[in-house]
Specification:
The chain is an alpha/beta fold. The protein is built from eleven helices and 16 strands. Strands 1, 4, 5, 14, 15 and 16 form a six-stranded mixed beta sheet that branches. The longest helix is centred in the N-terminal third of the chain and has 14 residues. The protein is globular and about 55 Å long. The structure holds manganese (II) ion.
């Protein structure tokens, strides 16, 4: 059996690498990929990266070469993650009338998120520019034979609108500047597809995450069915305080939640820092980010055309703190 016009027998969808290049090599080798002329290939399967190859980890430059070489060779595809989009915006000058120097302001928080990447490319400025140009060519979402991929959230309405406006799934320069305005189409698309949905915490409350950041909102599922309380929709590593978790969703909050249908094709996302044993979130929804860069697992799903996802098709490598 082959899936799709390109004749691949299956696809190996891979979660957020975040600079864990050595672990990525181990995962590819475990799945039967071998270097051919220096680039990892599989004779009859294609890899699909879910974005967030950059930032945080020890071997960001190496990870980017590994992935980009595979994409250039055709042995992999890669979509845009919020970290690649952040890198583009962080390095794009803002229009002159703007109060900030760059599309993504150089605040202490933003500086910290991109610090390892900039440090590791400090002696390779031309390579960094080359990768930034490459990020701008990455699709925002992919509709593959029998499955879909997006970094954080499949929002059919926004995706349909994107295709209607632009006719494809690619990032374009004018949208980078437009995204500075949070309520613009570009602002909404990038935020939703690469960062997901969230709900604001009640006024005056906040959560300090395990990563040390203070948040006034929490990440929510885009596939919840008939949720009643915050507990039913929360989807993030940091649990909500009990009293907040039990709060009922307001009519407005319920109305704004997405609900990915049970009969839709399987969709794969990264982004959410999961822990524990990899398994589908639902029969047609899987997240492949199991916190590799925090010494969790780098996870792939080996897709062969099934309508219902199965726990035994996840493959992973534990991240070695020494490597
Ligand atoms: Mn992400």
């Amino acid at each position: 059996m082959s899936l799709g016009r390109e004749g691949w027998r299956g696809y190996d969808i891979i979660g957020d690498v975040h600079g864990c290049a050595n672990t990525l090599e181990k995962l590819l080798q475990k799945m039967g990929y071998e270097r051919c002329d220096g680039v990892y290939c599989h004779p009859d399967r294609q890899a699909v990266f879910l974005g967030d190859v950059v930032d945080r980890g020890p071997h960001i430059r190496e990870a980017l070469y590994l992935v980009k070489d595979m994409v250039d060779r055709g042995s992999a595809r890669c979509i845009l993650g919020n970290h690649e989009f952040n890198a583009i915006c962080y390095t794009t000058p803002a229009p002159e009338h703007s109060e900030q120097g760059h599309v993504r302001a150089h605040t202490p928080r933003h500086n910290r998120l991109i610090a390892e990447t900039l440090e590791q490319f400090a002696c390779h400025p031309e390579e960094w520019r080359m990768f930034l140009d490459w990020f701008k060519t990455l699709p925002l979402f992919l509709e593959m034979p029998g499955f879909r991929v997006v970094h954080a959230c499949w929002d059919q309405g926004l995706i349909d609108e994107y295709k209607a406006r632009y006719g494809d799934n690619l990032l374009r320069d004018e949208l980078i500047l437009e995204s500075m305005e949070a309520h613009s189409f570009a602002g909404r698309v990038f935020d939703r597809l690469t960062r997901g949905t969230d709900i604001s915490l009640p006024r005056g409350t906040s959560i300090v995450g395990r990563d040390g950041f203070v948040r006034e909102s929490f990440r929510t599922k885009f596939w919840a069915r008939n949720p009643q309380t915050y507990r039913d929709v929360v989807f993030q590593p940091d649990p909500l305080p009990e009293d907040i978790a039990d709060r009922p969703l307001s009519a407005r909050e319920s109305e704004q939640l997405l609900s990915y249908g049970v009969n839709e094709p399987p969709v794969f996302v990264g982004h959410y820092w999961l822990q524990g044993s990899p398994k589908p979130l639902r029969s047609n929804v899987a997240c492949l980010d199991y916190s590799a860069v925090k010494f969790g697992r780098l996870v792939a799903y080996r897709f062969d055309g099934e309508r219902k996802l199965s726990a035994d098709k996840f493959v992973w490598v534990y991240v070695d703190p020494e490597s």
